[in-house]
Amino acid sequence: MVFEPELDRALHPRLAYVRPGPDVHSLAELGSTVSQRFNSEPVVAYFLASEPDLAWQVALPSGIVYVNQHTGEILGERSRGQTFLGFVHEVHVRLGGGEFGKDILRWSTLATLVSLATGLYLWWPAKRVRVRRNGSGRSLWVDLHNTIGIIALAPLALIVGTGVLLGFENELAPAVERIIASRPSAVTRFRQASAQMSAPAITPDQAVAIARRVMPDAVPYRLQMPKYGGSYRVALLDPRRSIAADHNVVVLDSSGNVLSKIQSSDLSEGDRLFAANEEIHTGSIWGLPTRVAACFTSLAAVVQVSSGWLMWLYRKKLISAPPSSPERT
Questions:
Q1: Which of 34, 141, 138 is nearest to 77 (CA)?
Q2: Which among 16, 111, 159, 203 is least surrounded, fewest beta carbons within 10 Å?
Q3: In what order do the strands lie in the sheet with 188-189?
Q4: Whole-angstrom distance between the N-terminal and C-terminal Cα of the chain?
């Protein structure tokens, strides 16, 4: 999940990548081409890529269409059915079982914090950090469990602790906001201009251009069409922000009047805290270095679970130590 976008593009390179060109087709042109190809389905939203070699996406009720924004070519369609990576995501947050699975994960994450604390307590008397060269059987797994466990303890506790806060966010949010005296996030609302029957509806490109003027330092990455929600909603990424950089939205009516805007800089202390917590948990808070750290921390968790299970099997005599290397404690 840490590298989900990159893995998804690697699995579908013909859809994901394009050859950059000097020109970019308008959203209106791309949407019209896609709609004509797919039985005049209305466009739900546009997704604009951050890099020129990544394809743009046009969302329809039936699925997501990938287009080459430089040539206008339709690269292919993906249905709204669940992908393998989508299934992995669903298992991670809900065990694939809806709210019941989510509740199991919430309490399991809390139990993992207890496991880390007791593991530190058991490790502390010997303070063993080694993997013996001639170790095998249970002694090898004991060494790996002790060594990797203590090395990865701090990042594991960070990942698990932020996971607990994510899992119980709805229950904890009111208390957190009271403790830090957080005010609600600011939403700037504009007085809507008087409607004129003769006022022409703006195009998707004009909606994006207006949003750029409202937030000149941010980059649009998603546009929701007014047919689904009654207004244009332009989501923008502010590269100056390390936390909640994508929490920027400009809402416009079909005539181009700005109805409201939300900026990451105007988020409440509580919302910023929970946004930072999520980015720490996913490793995205400082880009590639923290994503790599989160990935290796997750692998360390797998080693801990596996080695703990094998230690238990040896202790219960369900598997035996190799004859050439007697079991040691």
A1: 34
A2: 111
A3: 74-79, 63-67, 56-60, 45-47, 219-224, 232-237, 248-252, 258-262, 188-189
A4: 37
Rounded to whole angstroms, the Cα distance separating 151 from 302 reads 14
Report helix, strand and coil shares of the chain as percent, to nearest 5: 50, 15, 40
Instruction: Give the C-alpha separation, 58 to 34, whole Å.
Output: 8
**3-class SS of residue 42:** coil
Q: Which of 248, 235, 243 has its CA nearest to residue 287? A: 243
Whether 327 has a pLDDT exceeding 50, the answer reads: no
The H or E element that residue 169 is part of is helix 169-179
The interaxial angle of helices 169-179 and 269-282, nearest 10 deg, is 130
Strands 63-67 and 188-189: unpaired
What DSSP character marks residue 88?
A: H
Beta strands in the chain (DSSP E): 45-47, 56-60, 63-67, 74-79, 188-189, 219-224, 232-237, 248-252, 258-262
pLDDT in tens, 83-108: 899 899 999 999 988 899 999 999 99
Nearest to 249 by CA among 283, 215, 226: 215
Which H or E run includes 151? Answer: helix 137-151
Q: Which residue has the tokens 């996971």?
A: 163
> pLDDT digit string (tens) for 232-271?
999 999 998 889 999 999 999 999 999 999 999 899 999 9
Is the distance from CB of 211 to CB of 219 less than 8 angstroms? no
Tokens 């530190």 belong to which residue? Answer: 120
Give the residue with greater pLDDT, 140 vs 291: 291
What is the four-CA torsion angle of 28, 34, 39, 44, rounded to 10 degrees? -60
